[in-house]
Amino acid sequence: METFIPRCFVPPQQSYFLFGPRGTGKSTFLRKHYGEALWIDLLKPDIFRTLSARPERLSELIYGNPDKRMVIIDEVQKAPELLAVVHSLIEEDKSRQFILTGSSARKLKRTHTDLLAGRLLWKTMHPFILSETMASSSLEHALQYGLLPIVHSSSDPHSTLDAYVTLYIREEVQQEGLTRNIGNFSRFLEAISFSHGSLLNASNIARECQVERKQVESYIEILIDILLAFKLSNFTKKAQRALVSHPKFYFFDAGVYRTLRPKGPLDRPEEIDGAALEGLVAQHLRAWNAYLGNPFDLYYWRTRSGSEIDFILYGSDGLYAVEVKNSSRVRPEDLRSLLSFRQDYPESKLLLLYRGNENLLIQGIHCLPCSEFLQKLKISTRKPMEG
C-alpha cells in the first residue's frame, strides 16, 4: 500500500477551488481528508456526459444525499457550466462546503468563475517540497526527476515523467482543442525548454520552432493556463536603475523541465543542471508562499547593465533577495548583484544559495547550502531565512 505523505497545504474551512497540475496529489489529499464527501469525478466519462448534458442534475445529486455536507467536484474545468449550479446551491445553503478541483484555468477564465468571487477561495496544490518528503527524497533526486507525487512514488521515474508529459500534450492540449496543430506545439515545447530560468523572448522562440510569434504567445498562455509553467516579472518598485522588461519563464517542476529539454553533445550538462536548480528553488518558493496564503509577491531583478538576482520576495513581512548558484563554493563575483541590490534597497535581506556544505556570512550576505535551505522551508517558517 502506498504511504501517504502529509502535505504543507492547510485546507480552509469554507468552500474553495483547489487548482494544480495533474499528478500534484489533489485527489489523494482530498480523499484522505474528506473520506465521507460526496465525490463527483468528471474524469469518468459517464458522469461527465450526464452533467454536461444536464447541469441541473448536480442539484438532484446533492438533494438526494442530504447527509453529505461536503461536496467535491473533481476536474471542474471539464464542465464549467456547473459553476452556475454551484453558485445557486451555495446561496441556498451556506453550511454546505464545496471543493472544486481543476488542472486548467483556461475555460474557467471565460465562463462563470466571477459568479463565485468571494464565495470560493482560490487555493493551489504544488509538487512536493523537500520538507514534505524529507528522507525519502534528496536534492540530487529532485533535480533529476522533480517532485511530482506520481513520479516520487514510481519505481521508474524516468518513464513516468515521459508518460506524464505525453499525457498533458494529449489530454490537456489536444482533447481540449487548445491547439489544432499538435506537431507545432510539440516543437514549441522543445524550443521553450531552453527558456527555463531565462528571460522570455517570444520572437526568438518563434524562429527556433518555425512558428509565428503570435502563435508562440498563444502557446505560452496555454502552458500557463494548464498550470505547466509560470512567469516572473522584474522587480521595479522605486527603481533607481534602468531595468529590462521581459519576464522570466519557468516550468512548474524540475523533472518536467528535464524531460522536455533536449540533451546531446552540444548541450552542456552544467547549463542544464544550473537551470534545473534555479527552477527547483523557484517551485519551492512558489509552493511555500502559496501555502502561507501568498504573503509575498515573487519577482526577479535584472538591470540593463547585466546585474541580476534570481528571486525577489516582497511583502508585508519584508524584502528578500535570493540568488542561486550551482557551485560548491562562494566566489566574490557571486555576490556582486546582491551587493548592488542592497545599494538600491538597504532594507533588503540578502541570501545566496549554493551547492556547498557551510553556512557563511559574507559582507552581510547569508550564504546557505541549497539543500539545507529547501529542507527547512516549511509553513511554520513565515520568513524565508527563519529555517
Quick rundown:
With 387 residues, the protein is an alpha/beta fold. It has helices at 26-33, 45-53, 57-63, 82-92, 106-109, 130-133, 139-145, 149-152, 157-174, 182-192, 202-209, 213-225, 254-260, 269-291, 336-344, 370-375, and strands at residues 16-19, 38-41, 70-74, 97-102, 121-124, 198-199, 229-232, 248-251, 296-302, 308-315, 318-324, 349-354, 360-362, 365-369.
Based on helices, strands and strand pairing, what is the structural class? alpha/beta
> What can be said about the biggest beta sheet?
6 strands, mixed
Assembly type of the shown chains? single chain
Described by the principal axes of the CA atoms, the overall outline is globular
Number of alpha- plus pi-helical segments? 16
Distance between the termini: 33 Å
Topology:
Elements: E1 16-19, H1 26-33, E2 38-41, H2 45-53, H3 57-63, E3 70-74, H4 82-92, E4 97-102, H5 106-109, E5 121-124, H6 130-133, H7 139-145, H8 149-152, H9 157-174, H10 182-192, E6 198-199, H11 202-209, H12 213-225, E7 229-232, E8 248-251, H13 254-260, H14 269-291, E9 296-302, E10 308-315, E11 318-324, H15 336-344, E12 349-354, E13 360-362, E14 365-369, H16 370-375
Parallel strand pairs: 1-4, 1-5, 2-3, 3-4, 11-12, 12-14
Antiparallel strand pairs: 6-8, 7-8, 9-10, 10-11, 13-14
Describe the protein in words.
With 387 residues, this protein is α/β, with parallel strands linked by helices. The chain has two domains: 16-124, 3-Layer(aba) Sandwich (Rossmann fold); 130-375, no CATH class. It is built from 16 helices and 14 strands. The chain has helices at residues 26-33, 45-53, 57-63, 82-92, 106-109, 130-133, 139-145, 149-152, 157-174, 182-192, 202-209, 213-225, 254-260, 269-291, 336-344, 370-375; strands at residues 16-19, 38-41, 70-74, 97-102, 121-124, 198-199, 229-232, 248-251, 296-302, 308-315, 318-324, 349-354, 360-362, 365-369. The strands form three sheets. The chain has a six-stranded mixed beta sheet, with helices on both faces. The protein has a five-stranded parallel beta sheet with strand order 2-3-4-1-5. The chain has a three-stranded antiparallel beta sheet with strand order 6-8-7. A hairpin with a 2-residue loop joins β10 (308-315) and β11 (318-324). α10 (182-192) crosses α11 (202-209) and α11 (202-209) packs across α12 (213-225). The longest helix is centred in the last third of the chain and has 23 residues, at 269-291. The protein is globular and about 70 Å long. The two termini are 33 Å apart. The model has no long low-confidence stretch (mean pLDDT 92).
